[in-house]
Amino acid sequence: MSHKQRLLVVGNGPVGHQFLESIVESGCATDYQITVIGEEPRPAYDRVHLTAWFETRQADALNMVADGFYATNNIDVRCGEKVVAIDRNAKTATTDSGRHYDYDQLVLATGSYPFVPPVPGHERENCFVYRTIEDLEAITAAAKNASVGAVVGGGLLGLEAAKAIKDLGLKTHVIEFAPRLMAVQVDDGGGALLRRKIEDLGVEVHTQKNTQNIGDGEHCVHKLSFADGAELETDILVFSAGIRPQDALARQCELEIGERGGIAINNYCQTSDPAIYAIGECALWNQRIFGLIAPGNEMARVAAAHILGNGDDKQFTGADMSTKLKLMGVDVASIGDAHGNTPGAKSYTFIDEQAEIYKKIVVSESGKHLLGAVLVGDADDYGNLLQFALNGIELPEHPEAMILPNIDGSASVGLGVDALPDSAQICSCNNVSKGDICAAVQGGALTVGDVKSCTKAASTCGGCTALVGQVVNAELTKLGVEVNTDLCEHFPYTRQELFHLIRVGGIKSFDELLEKHGSGKGCAICKPTAASIFASCWNEYILENQHAGLQDTNDRFLANMQNNGTFSVVPRMAGGEVTPDGLITVGSIAKKYKLYTKITGGQRVDLFGATLDQLPVIWKELIDAGFESGHAYGKSLRTVKSCVGSSWCRYGVQDSVGQAIDLENRYKGLRSPHKIKMAVSGCTRECAEAQSKDVGVIATEKGWNLYVCGNGGMKPRHADLFASDIDTETLVKYVDRLLMFYVRTADRLQRTSVWMENLEGGLDYLRQVIIDDSLGICDELERDMQSVVDSYQCEWKTTIEDEQKLKQFRSFVNADDGDKDIVFVEERGQIRPANEEEKQLNNNLIAVA
Amino acid sequence: MSWTTVCTLDDILPNAGAAALVGDTQLAVFRVDDRIFALDNHCPFSRANVLARGIVGSVGDTLVVASPLYKQHFSLEAGHCLEDDSISVRRFPARNENGLVQVQL
After folding, report:
1. pLDDT, tens digit, 9 for 90 and up, residues B72-84
2. Which residues have C-beta within 8 Å of that of residue A68, sequence separation ≥ 6?
3. What structural domains and CATH numbers belong to chain A?
4. Which of A169, A170, A559, A734 has the fewest Cβ atoms within 10 Å of its own Cβ atom?
């Protein structure tokens, strides 16, 4: 057998990694001896979301490489090693450590480097660029002794850098050479609005400033002198004045280079040496450099297909440079010919100074086709407009209607997804076409969530989520799949609709609900759902006669029923805090009633093996000792886990236990579509595992970071960062709104994670509703929550004080006996239910009745 | 066979069940509006005496109780399991006699 082909990848960034993934996905990785060499100290990480490093300050959070990726696929990875020379004749690359690597095919994915203008003084201390994790670490360290920061460059990355500096607590300036911010993507009108919005956030913007010298400052470390005579002092300076292709290796080995740099490639991403490919920001195709991730990924896929020899048809043919992003909380989008440079192009502009929205579309001379667009302040139309532009779809008679607000309630002029060809690219980050999505639906993926996981559509930037949803629904309709969202046979409504019927109609009993809106006798689906909604809306005692029979298994007796018909008992220990006396009480009660005890994952104690008739007596003792119901039985708030925080921990920056107790006491008893778990960590080390909770709170030096919609369990999901550095009042306000919105709109038994993923627009939409109050319902949500908080009662206290209710807890309605079939055996010094075999043998059984 | 009174109608919540003990037999007695049904309280799937604690309702025209542990449905009138033809629980004659709940064993 001949030796394996040696495939050498130089550069281990996002595009280099996409190349490796493409090779692995083909299933042919084992046919090659693959080596990847990167000069950074770690393997590929998500440079597009570099700024997210500030959220956790941990490089792992940006890691793009799945566990075991290199080992499983037999890829030799070299980090912190730099290729310094290539010998094309010998087909060898040499690194700075003196090692030689032979290759049959070489892929250059060396990326780009930040351009630093050659201004005198640019090499002074505390002058940085914004490209790698190491850059961010250096900026963070320098910020500790600084009070002012400035960014040279008002483009996309410059504004990201400005946000980072602002978040580090520095007075922040942005200096731009052009007359406006984001000069490439945005026109004058959009730029003016963007500037105003960014200045509102406390960042000073200086345009038309040509920096000529950097010298010693009087109040700060540096003084910048501009061509117009103005001056600015700053302690930290970050250059973000564009990128240059990293083509040094290609120059050294004399590959063809563009006049202004960049490694020239053909449609297969081959350089002038057919054994060498170049992909990503280092590559020059058709005299163009592509500084976005999507074209880089596409080049990686093309090069991989060509090397594997299975893709003469797969070529790189340029890329659309349209972008949509959120800069410092401001939505900005740019499509195609944003400046109207096409001959004969005409434009329509809409400006709303009140709401700070700017929208412009550029149409062809004939008025029939969309050439470009600029959106600032509201980029919801992006997906729709992009499809018109990319697919040459004919515009409606009045194209301006596409950007005008929809005031009189008439449907806005949208694009029926049926108008899109199958080839229309829906998700540009992952190159997923409408045809791919339709095929996935035909293959059995019936929800947006399913389609996301099998096609990767909408899983990177999420900008296309709404459009993916429309395609999925249209395809389902076409397939004749009726999406039945009825709750059950008794109610032709979704849970959300039922919620509104109950709330608006003031309905307080199941009989009334069934009479007005349902049929039959109800069932184990609609009854607990209605009971939960009644509790969320009116918060009446759940064992009231009209409610008791509706409750699901555990709620019915305010305890978790176990496999042998006995129950477990969980007293609340808010935040996981319990006094020694409290623990002793719980221990004595467990001992007295011979209960099995275990510590739960939610930082409290669970007591197992109580019979129905024991529940009230056990609870009476617990309540007399000051405990209250832990609602472990409810679809409601379970626990708010915490670490000890600043009170004890030498790293803690806030009182996480106190915060956890306050949150738990605020939301205890709230009935919801599914259980809710929370946690509060006292510092970024995150010992309370808040990022695996529905609501996770992590202390920062300035306040709290709020994470939402995570969960553990069968399908774990990391929570998403929702808001940063907020104070306690804001935290509570957001959580009030978020939980109430969830309670109102989620499906039955839908955790917050799935709920959020199924909202059109996902996390961004949720932010708009909760933070920006886009639906105008936040006051109402807060009021509703306050009413639930104010009407809280310990259900067990109410129960033991009511003779009538206690009757429900007898084992038999007509006898004081217990259930003789409940028997236990001893294991590790405690009881557990006897299994069938042990019952047959009848040895050492422990009976309770 | 004679009727045994186990409790009054008011002892059972409307559209819910209660467990009763007659001799050594554990019964699940259900009240649907003012009608009474009785099944064996033993759930054949979980092997625990819990059927009386299930939610009462209807599947189509059949009145049912859903086992509280694994949620299989049993017909209140016939005792068979709707999910598995081969499984059923014993049913007992039961009635509401002027506000008294009575069963026959």
Report:
1. 999 999 999 998 8
2. none
3. 5-113+245-307 (3.50.50.60), 127-241 (3.50.50.60), 416-477 (1.10.10.1100), 495-551 (no CATH), 636-793 (3.30.413.10)
4. A169
* A183 shares contact with chain B (CB less than 8 Å): no
Contacts of A814 in chain B (CB under 8 A): 6-7, 20-22
Q: Do A549 and B53 touch (CB under 8 A)?
A: no
* Gap between the Cα atoms of A412 and A394, Å rounded: 16
Closest CB from B56, B69, B73 relative to A561: B69
Interface test mutation site (partner A, options B45, B55, B59, B76, max chain A beta carbons within 10 A)? B55
Assess A807–B contact: CB distance below 8 Å, yes or no: yes
According to the model, what pLDDT value does residue A513 have? 95
* B26/A812 Cβ within 8 A: yes
pLDDT of A206-239, one tens digit each?
999 999 999 999 999 999 999 999 999 999 999 9
CA A6 to chain centre: 38
User: What distance in Å separates residue B46's CA from the closest CA in chain A?
Assistant: 7
Q: Which of B21, B42, B63 lies closest to A817 in CB terms?
A: B21
Local confidence band at A410 (pLDDT 50, 70, 90 cut-offs):
very low
Give helix A762-770 / helix A728-745 axis angle, nearest 10°: 120
How near does any CA of chain A get to the CA of B7, in Å? Answer: 6
Q: What is the pLDDT of residue A771?
A: 95
For B50, the domain range is 4-103
Overall average pLDDT of the A280-284 stretch: 96
Q: How high is the pLDDT of residue A232?
A: 95
54-93 in B: which are within 8 Å (CB) of A? 54-60, 63-64, 66, 68-69, 71, 73
Count how many domains chain B has. 1
Render pLDDT for A183-206 as a digit per residue (tens, 0 to 9). Answer: 888 888 889 989 998 998 889 999
C-alpha A641: how far from its chain's center?
21
Grade residue A483 by pLDDT with cuts at 50, 70 and 90: low
Any A CB within 8 A of B105 CB: no
Residue A352: Cβ within 10 Å count: 13
- The CATH number for B15's domain is 2.102.10.10
A512, two tokens: 């009334």
Out of A56-70, A469-483, A672-686, pick the least confident.
Answer: A469-483
Residue of A668, A756, A738, A669 lying closest to A697 (CA atoms): A738
ipTM over 0.90 threshold: yes
Model pLDDT for residues A515-533, shown as the tens digit of each residue: 999 999 999 999 999 999 9
Q: Are B52 and A811 in contact (CB under 8 A)?
A: no
